[in-house]
Amino acid sequence: MSNYIRKDAKIFVAGHRGLAGSAIVRKLRSLGYENLLLRTRQEVDLLDSNAVSSFFAEQRPDFVFLAAAKVGGILANRNFPADFIAQNLRIQSNVIESAYRAQVKRLLFLGSSCIYPKLARQPMGEDQLLTGPLEFTNRSYAVAKIAGIELCWAFNRQHGTEYLAAMPTNLYGLGDNYDLESSHVLPALIRKVHEAKQCGNRTVTVWGTGTPLREFLFSDDMADACVFLLNLPKDEFHKLTGNPEMAPLVNVGSGSELTIGELAKKVCEVLEFDGEIVFDTTKPDGTPRKLMDSSKLFSFGWKPKISIEEGIRIAYAEFSGKSQSPVEDVNERTSSHESKNRARDSVALDRSDCADPGQRQRN
Ligand code: GFB
User: Fold this and answer.
1) What 3-state DSSP class applies to 36?
2) Whole-prediction pTM value?
């Protein structure tokens, strides 16, 4: 990895307690970056433009990772579209505008693969942006993230800034959200299979038809890619952000996909559950396929390290409160106390919870 960012640089990680932000903090610390600016929502509310602007004016970070966002799985996106668009628009505008005023050297904005059209050509290259209609279940979130890309691009064009938008594929990992109503599919499946085992149930309910294809990336791999990108030497970084004709956009994926049905089987295998998988087709499938073309990122020499099986094992070890040898390394470098507690809370099952574990919701 090249070292554009000096070890003593002041780096603001917005959203440092989330799945993506906490992984970025782990990565930065593991590389010896200690001058990190981390603020909880109580300390600096990113929805509040005055608070954000004062924070940047006082602290003047050199670099920014913008990982703060209102995020959630397919059902949360479908049920709360106003929250997803309004909050994300505000967070990203507040941070990007303040970063400009504070003369931040480089900023990395995190988006999502759902910015691409529902029926985009596969695998989806960066050139697929705004080429067709969006998937309905997450269009509000996607439009906010597209606006974030546009903000980075517009600031680069008008002010010569170096803001890059990285679009990760579906993420999972340490400190994930395991709430069954609002989570993404992988943590939901880990929890459902774990609880079916604990309750002695023979079935696990998976939403939709099981046929949609998804690509997954472990959050620590995503963080590795983000730090790698922001650390690129000037001429290479300029290739991504310096062309006014091209969005400063880079896909961050693993390059491999599987169906939701296959994913459910994998989770059952890793968790050693031999029951039956049942599909609840009253729940939405979402977009049929979203494999990203990450060749632009790979061409700089980056590649992911954690396979889906290993990733599920690591995530499950954290969720179930066990730290086994293959996960020690990642867990050592973790971890928001909070996220561990969150995971442990989730596994403390009460017998009465076993009535309908596939559908149960806990916070
Ligand atoms: O991860 P997920 O919620 O998000 O769902 P998306 C992926 C697929 O898994 C869908 C199926 O086809 C779901 O129907 N699925 C099966 C489940 N069982 C479950 C379950 O128990 N919980 C969940 N959540 N899904 C999100 C977007 O789309 O992707 C966000 O809504 C974001 O905006 C994120 O972009 C990366 O991949 O469909």
Assistant:
1) strand
2) 0.92
